## 1
Amino acid sequence: MPQPATATPPAFVTADPTWADRVRASFARQGAMATLGARLAAVEPGYCAIELTPRPEVAQQHGYVHAGVIAAIVDSAGGYAGFTLFPADSSVLSVEFKLNLLAPAQGERLVAEGFVVKPGRRLCIVRGEVHAEDRGRRTLVALMQQTLMVMHGQPDP
Amino acid sequence: MPQPATATPPAFVTADPTWADRVRASFARQGAMATLGARLAAVEPGYCAIELTPRPEVAQQHGYVHAGVIAAIVDSAGGYAGFTLFPADSSVLSVEFKLNLLAPAQGERLVAEGFVVKPGRRLCIVRGEVHAEDRGRRTLVALMQQTLMVMHGQPDP
Amino acid sequence: MPQPATATPPAFVTADPTWADRVRASFARQGAMATLGARLAAVEPGYCAIELTPRPEVAQQHGYVHAGVIAAIVDSAGGYAGFTLFPADSSVLSVEFKLNLLAPAQGERLVAEGFVVKPGRRLCIVRGEVHAEDRGRRTLVALMQQTLMVMHGQPDP
Amino acid sequence: MPQPATATPPAFVTADPTWADRVRASFARQGAMATLGARLAAVEPGYCAIELTPRPEVAQQHGYVHAGVIAAIVDSAGGYAGFTLFPADSSVLSVEFKLNLLAPAQGERLVAEGFVVKPGRRLCIVRGEVHAEDRGRRTLVALMQQTLMVMHGQPDP
């Protein structure tokens, strides 16, 4: 069975040695992540994971995690995956994203992951996946494709 | 200057006289909307508006409303726009949506609106817009295109 | 019934008086449009229409116009809608687009229209619609949302 | 470096032993593929590849393969990837797709691949990639995310 070429992300080269600190500081400033109870789970060059515990406060009408909350954590995961590769004096902006919802989001933990597919000087293309974990089982609940913009000369405050 | 044909939405015919009550009851069950401080602002056949007051608890790292929070309110607005046209014994599911972010979301009030473009027996296609209002000025901050699924025989609990 | 704010596109201001000639010359260089039998039907500031006659050479397996052919004409219509507003020494690039297929594309004529929603210095956001015309009846067959890039300093050859 | 879980597609189980013949027969009926000069390159359960030789007849204004032509081959590749898993008395319909263009499409050969991510009874979610091959080098030129519908009881003619 053929494999997607994007299966094995390339080894990305960072432009600024403080990439991990910059991502952590920026994430900490996102009030929305705190309100939703989302936590930064992992950050590597071209990669970021954000986790969330499903609970009624982030649910839609059937008790599953709301599609918009899934969007929020995977948009941030994608944005910070890209941000790891940006230069020091820049910030990151989501131009657009597209999200497919594949299965009800429930269980012990949601993990949203962003994977840079193509970094660029101005735009950066990212893929995202959200998995629900429950009693040792992992289910893909959402799939994302995202465009980021590198805001040169506009570092985070 | 030509106008989009979708500019004037058709006069939709509802399938169930309790559509407004069903939307209100379903919205009230969305814990995520309460957590974000979103309120149901209007509901009409094929249309729904949800409002949100920008504040640090729903912000991203620069203080603007987080793209995922924008996604959450416009996904719900779109979903309920569609739901007004669904039969009584059904519920609504977001299959996918695509969101473009056009301007920083800030000001006194955000209004997310969903407009049904094409209702169908199984799928329903919806457009969404999010505007920021500030001192009498209205700015388009996001544009959405969404696919809903009609879940026949599976009414909300 | 509320109307989308994007219903009435603003009166756009062009940056270069030769916008119509530039679009026509660029369209004429698109070999793919000639191969598909697509014709430039109208161009105005922030707007472009491209038409196509449905026939077996552009069909999918059931005889309707192929989704990819619909994508081709509405991507070009959107791109040239944006291009009318770009400066003289620039060219246009599609960053991404999203297309919903709403009904079988058949009949006497397809018309793909692009409407600029938000022009910008680097990016330009466009909406697209494709209608099928048949015996005086018009059916919306596809809906698009698109991001263009302004390639400054890189005019068409 | 973490890998996307969708990197290794599952071993899909087909519902109908004639899946390969059905795909080939359906592809042969797509007049648009013949007009564009696209060829079926490979088909496996949950996977399909379509190839195209870049040439002026499928180009946009700068001589690269038109985004809409890229859309056409990757939409077909995705659709047939899904179709391999559909039951015998069904056909396939593209509900929507989203395409990011990553690099100019040029070279000796374009290969569009569709990979099923999640098959379902009614909907099927597919990822797509398009690579350009030139003198032994492979460049990712486009990335797609697609929703298909299973049309039960409506086999191809």
Note: The mean pLDDT of chain D is 96.
## 2
Amino acid sequence: MFDFELLKESKKTEARLTKITTSHGSIETPIFMPVGTQATVKAMSSRELKEINSQIILANTYHLYLRPGDELIKKAGGLHDFMSWDLPILTDSGGFQVFSLSDMREIKEEGVYFRSHLDGSKHFISPEKSMQIQKNLGSDIVMAFDECPPYPAEKSYVEKSLNRTLRWAERSKKEMENSEQALFGIIQGGVYPELRKKSVKEMTKLNFPGYSIGGVSVGEPKEEIYKILDYTTPIMPKDKPRYLMGVGTPEDLLEGVYYGIDMFDCVMPTRIARHGQVFTAEGRLTVRNATYAEDFNPLDPDCDCYVCQNYSRAYIRHLIKRNEILGVRLTSYHNLYFMLKFSEKIRKAIKEDSFLDFREEFYQKYKLK
Amino acid sequence: MFDFELLKESKKTEARLTKITTSHGSIETPIFMPVGTQATVKAMSSRELKEINSQIILANTYHLYLRPGDELIKKAGGLHDFMSWDLPILTDSGGFQVFSLSDMREIKEEGVYFRSHLDGSKHFISPEKSMQIQKNLGSDIVMAFDECPPYPAEKSYVEKSLNRTLRWAERSKKEMENSEQALFGIIQGGVYPELRKKSVKEMTKLNFPGYSIGGVSVGEPKEEIYKILDYTTPIMPKDKPRYLMGVGTPEDLLEGVYYGIDMFDCVMPTRIARHGQVFTAEGRLTVRNATYAEDFNPLDPDCDCYVCQNYSRAYIRHLIKRNEILGVRLTSYHNLYFMLKFSEKIRKAIKEDSFLDFREEFYQKYKLK
């Protein structure tokens, strides 16, 4: 099952409050989705993810197809059972990862031939194959198989690729007929306004239950993403969820929401955590640095998470310097908590018609990198 | 504060049930103590340690002295505050680690000169210094500074070393005068019965609140340890706790308890966990092996821990093969739970006068490696 409710629209911005219902429960948006690439959100257990109020997590089709294999996950009863997560799961189509392999893949009309980044073995993923994998995974929200052009890319190439993505979306839809899983179409078009417009126009004709904005976070400057949103989201259907793929710093969330995005995902919070860097209300802090060797304050004095209530910067720095697993566990937990709490604050601000004030207060305190 | 109660003695063996009280709470023995070498039990959070009923944990003086430094830990309010653990902590004296450095250290009557295994820097630890470090750490139970001879070692060397350990025990005691921390004397003597006897006789004259058996788990066959216990524990004071240092497989616990040991510690449960190996009621299982790729059973079908209630062998194998932190978290959690639950079962068996039956049943099911 899949249901979408538009609960509230902001008056001065495109920001909106929505509720998405799947067979594994409901999601309130705007929401940040932690990424569990290999059927695990790095360093986190499923009950910790629930404790920090993760409403939905993401998993990667490409990685799970290669290892441990989608057939194995199907035997386990699907991804929910396999990883012990009973709330919603969204899977990508594998397209983004396959296209990132650059010289190890060949794109044809029928699909993409590529070699595994793990062992060089040969593989083929088509729109149909991507849907079959995602069916085996049993995620609640699945993505159509798209081509994600690099940045920068010639307009003519982006247009050709966009047209193929449309044909692939139709094939994805056909393969997903009669499925309980909700298939999202992906808007492409690079940094070209008329191509994004064309993509929205043609993709929405297929009447998907939701739409993603793809082809971002591929190396372009942040301003380009915001520009794309500025001319793309207003023409997207209001009565469908909007998901900005692979984007999700705190400032990205604020800007995305401002332009009307509902869903975000990014590996960044757990990736920087592994390098000893954490979010605070004042900006990012590299707790690994010698400055914090004798700092007995919590990571973020404004934070009420389990980590900030129990551990100090000095202790976490010690753990990270000594390569102790608990160090990365604590920074990962805190960073994801920060993002989910931040999503919650954004929802509250929209509810109370104070989103613009909230955004301004954030920038006054949070030092951008 | 420190208090010891002998609650029950087994009739047919030396096994006993005791209660040790420290200023951070009470411990029921026989007990396995998880090892938190660098102020963290590897891969575990403090609340997980509580959840699996860890009554007391161990930390290493040598490692903490080097990094992050005992002075820093003192500033943090001691080890309990630093690592967010409010139950009892036992620290070793640093002796074992220093003597393991072999060619990087020189033993003199005043103490040991050595080079750090981390950066080669020069250091000196004496009995007084070891006590000062342990005071800074603020552990509840501290160990006297001893010399731990290697195995094999000539009797004449072991005797010389034993005498030095006695002189160092006196100096340790003097340095710890007026401390709230409970100082344990360490019984040495290698594999020589009369030296062990001499050590017990002389060490108990110093009237420590507890005694450890050291100089084991240094490369000798298991049978040697059990022989040592057979002739050593019966002559140790009944009204003091007995701690067998660095020993702690399931079978070691059973045999140690049989011979009258109360406390055990070992890095083994977390170390094998990092290599994808776990305890089950039937013996050790290497979940990393291909055999378990599609095995959707829990690690140990007889186990009621969080891991076994929620995750399968196939999933944990996948995580470990992919070097995902959660994999090691789950195997570590399960192995420590196994050891603590096993300690609890041993206590119950002693209470119910069925320890010998319990021991026999264990060996019938558990395949030794």
Note: Chain B touches chain A at residues 38-40, 42-47, 67-68, 72, 75-77, 82-84, 293-294, 296, 306, 310-312, 314-315, 318-319, 321-322, 324-326, 328-330 (CB under 8 Å).
